[in-house]
Input
Amino acid sequence: MINDKYYSVYFDFNKSTPIENSTAAIDVVLSYLRKNPSANLDILGYADQVGESEYNEKLSNARANNVKTILEKAGIASSKLNVVANGADTSIQKDSEEARRLARRVTFRVK
Output
């Protein structure tokens, strides 16, 4: 959560590269970090419930690390960024394609 709003970066099924139209969230986070240089950030990666838990853990980690790399390339120090791989988001309806689409994401938590 940043300034009382949630920002998410979304991913296609089985992919760790953000979908093009969700990168605006990265821009908001980047702007926030530049304006608040003392802030640290958790980058929380998630997968949907399709597949084995071990695979989803790796995929959620890859997603969060890709977003971290984007922020680092934009000039944010690695020491300010913490990757958290959360694996599959089990709070969503597994049988709903729309819910699974929303589960494939990276969110942020300012510390």
About this structure: The chain has one domain: 8-110. The chain has three helices and four strands.
